[in-house]
Amino acid sequence: MNFFKTVSYLFHPIVMPITGAIIYFIVAPRFLPEEVIQSKIYGLFIITVLIPIVCYFLLKTIGAVTSINLDTTTQRKIPLVIQSALFLLVLRTIVDSYNYPELYFFFVGTLFSALCAFFMAMFNVKASLHMIGVASVTMFLIILSIHFGVNLTNSIAIASISTGLVATSRLFLKAHNPLELTLGIFIGVFPQILLVNFWL
Q: What is the pTM of this model?
């Protein structure tokens, strides 16, 4: 039980966007000054990790959410709106389509995924946010490998195993059923594939 809880926390949706960004800066063969990379990572950490954590505690204080896992569709609505707004902020202030096209469209894809999850929650349909996050990063890694012509077989294998491990953990913890996990994978992967034509 503790192992699966640890997996769920390690691969929490809140850390997946910055994970994708770190992977990008490691994989991208183009030269970027170290101070630029650091400033981007710090900015992304503040917007995609720190601010959501602060918002979570504020929402918990007023009773809008009860758990960091956002167990019900009702609890998901406000956090997903906040997350979507923060992704828009990233696209406006941190990542631009000219200098970082791959990363830019990765965040466009994550924005689409967040909006899809929100609209599904509006209709009381629950998709796994964990699977959305890990699946989007895995697909981004695969596309980066193709785009840059870099052999990332080991990394892709680890990401794929991690995806399966997260799915197993969510099932074991009874947080989701197989359909909700499948919806999460689809919502995470499809926008990344859809947008790949803009930068591949």
A: 0.93
